[in-house]
Amino acid sequence: MKNAPLYLQSDLKSIPEFLNFSQFEKDASLSLRQKGYFIIKDLIDHKLIDAVIEDCRGKYNKYDADNRIQDAFTFSNNVKKVATTKKVIDLLSSIYGSQSFPFQTLNFEYGTEQKLHSDMIHFSSFPKYFMAGCWVAFEDITLENGPLQYVEGSHYLPDTTPQDIKGFKIGEKDNGKYYSLCYEPYIEKLVNDLKLKKSYAVIKKGDAFIWSANLIHGGSVIKNKEKTRLSQVTHYYFKNCVYYTPLLSDTYNSQYFIRYPWNISSMQKLQEAELFENAEKLNLKLRIFSWSNFLLSKPLIVRKFLVLINLLLRGGLRSYLEKKIN
Ligand SMILES: O=C(O)CCC(=O)C(=O)O
Fold first, then answer.
1. Which of 164, 189, 287, 324 counts the most CB atoms within 10 A of its CB?
2. Would you list the DSSP string of 29-42?
3. Residues 162, 32, 217, 168: what is their CA dihedral angle, to the nearest 10 degrees?
4. pTM of the prediction?
5. For 42-75, how does the pLDDT look when each residue is reduced to its tens digit (9 = 90+)?
6. Ligand 1, closest atom to CA 113?
């Protein structure tokens, strides 16, 4: 596995795989490389879209600010069908140079008005940039119903981690608070200070907008609150990586919040053994914290003491002694 996706490699135009690409793959890799996104027209059949809309009806999370359903593939085979569309999986696998797999779905009824962000704050990997998003319009999108907005070329900006932002308290329990308090304003200011242009994915029902891991994007303002904006986002990772969430990690101290993503195609979550295999191939020394390993690393006397404390805390000591006395 290369340490950067194929489409980002400096010598792309002379790489044999690229030279053998179909025109579709060449166009997609060059668009993703230059602009950070690629649009596929008429990707999803309208009958399938209507079936997904039916499966999701009444299930949008009314308590979430943006009415989303996360991971609807767990109950809707139609959502799974959209997520596992062969054309997308094959395209991403070729242009990244590694087998792609869908790991998360989000279904929306209305626009999200989600602030600008890069997915790399949520979904990063070793090696970097092995992640992509695919946003499918389930109805014609207009400037009225809060289209997806994006900042062309922003995928070349440095990826921002919590440590890069003043005031972001690492390791605090409520990362969500610091995400909206510090991260989102930081990205908005960055885009404004650099005078980068915001554009809108005004695409038709069935079209897809694919973005590269670090493209800054979000949901634009809904001008007409009555209008729905039915859509599905699928997030893709690539095989043989180690996956983590920078938002929940202390990267300066090499403490990573490791992810065990779903593979929606096989309907299985990544297992620890495979994660370690991937790490080993990448020459990454991974140490996962577990209480049993922690205890085993201590001398016997300390272990006995810790077990005693544990029993005491759970009230187990009393019942243990009671059993002994009786
Ligand atoms: O659909 C939207 O408005 C935003 C979606 C998004 O930002 C994401 O899935 O990462």
1. 164
2. HHHHHHTSEEEETT
3. 0
4. 0.89
5. 999 999 999 999 999 999 876 566 689 999 999 9
6. 3
Backbone φ and ψ for 242, nearest 5 degrees, come out as -115, 130
Q: Is the dihedral of CA 137, 141, 147, 150 positive or negative?
A: positive
Q: What's the 148 CA to ligand 1 centre distance in angstroms?
A: 7
Residues 171 and 320 in one domain: no
Domain limits for position 321: 291-325
Ligand 1, residues at Cβ distance < 6 Å: 106, 108, 111-112, 114, 119, 133, 148, 217-219, 231, 233
**213 lies in a domain?**
yes
Domain count of the fold of the chain: 2
Q: Which two tokens stand for residue 93?
A: 């696998």
Q: How many beta carbons lie within 10 A of that of residue 184, not counting itself?
A: 17
Evaluate whether residue 1 is within a structural domain.
no
Which residue is closest in CA terms to ligand 1's atom 3? Answer: 219
| 204 HSE (CA, 13 A, CB side) | 7
